[in-house]
Amino acid sequence: MTTSSPATAIPPESHCGTEASGSGNNGFVNHAQLTRTLEGIERSTKGVVDVEVVGESNQGREIYTARVGEGDTVVFVQSQIHGNENHGTEALLDLLRRWGGATPEAAALREEVTIVAIPRLNVDGGERDTRQNEMTWADVVAAFPQLAGVAPAWNYNTRVGGFDVNRDFNPDLDYVPQPADFPGNSADTGWYITPEAQTVRDVYRGLEAEFGTVDYFVDLHNQWSCYATEDLESMSPLSISAKFIDDPSEFGTWPEFDMEASKRANVAVYEALQDYGRSGYGDLTLYPQDTNLPGTALGSFALRGSAVVLFETSSQTQYDGMKRNGMLRKQIEIGLGGLVDAVADGSIATLDPSVYDTIPQRVYLPAD
Known about the structure:
- This protein is an alpha/beta fold.
- The chain has 10 helices and 12 strands.
């Protein structure tokens, strides 16, 4: 069992911390700093962590992958598909340093696992601190002329002028946007009309060609600050989930869909955080299980056979800025690191997927 110094759990009667902090995303790495940090990690690890530009945003910013390991099992991780959800990016940078390090533990892990990370997908939204990317419907029509005269996709925000990229995915990686499929809704598959979703698709397709199946896909998000555990005894700093598809047959034939594998992956995260005892990290909860979101990356890739894990870390920058940043980053490192460790040493195969159904549900609390 992992040991650590106990930290104070967050009592439910305390302030949720949703008053404006005034800092926004200023304390997190911006795009230029992210670029320099990734270059520094590649340099300090002597190329063990291999950084590449794999795409470009609508505003011309680079989208990076960082790859480490040579194992036959692949873990694909993406962070910040929503530009105002920063903690996963910061945690991934710390984990890449660890996974690429010179320790015997890191070297052993790299023999078993290949980790491919997109540390920040929505690089335009990250710069302006918005959930959406920076792209107009006119930009989409310019790229896909067959959509001229079609109502904009339902996930387009006219006020902000951008798309919720995490509704732009389709389990058919060869899908071409069709006018009849617009505007769609949250229960539909997406279209790959944004450069961010196209980039993820292309990376995923390449990993399928290399590995056969992308064994694990992890998506790092943030959520509302004020959730409690089911017993209302503690605030919940994290929600996780394996479930994004109600009925796989609704979307065609997907024989590799494996809900049990997704549950085991989530149990690995849960148990890694439970090992921290009274720290508060163990108070994680389940994201709502009545979701059916095939247009998310998690839903689409689950259909293709990936075991999927959602991290929904408490707090978004427009509410909280840097509040609890160290704690929130650390819980992602512990949970995601625990998953990768369990994959590398094979112990994930011994985990009981029924434990997933015992994880407490999250309870919404209003801001006080």
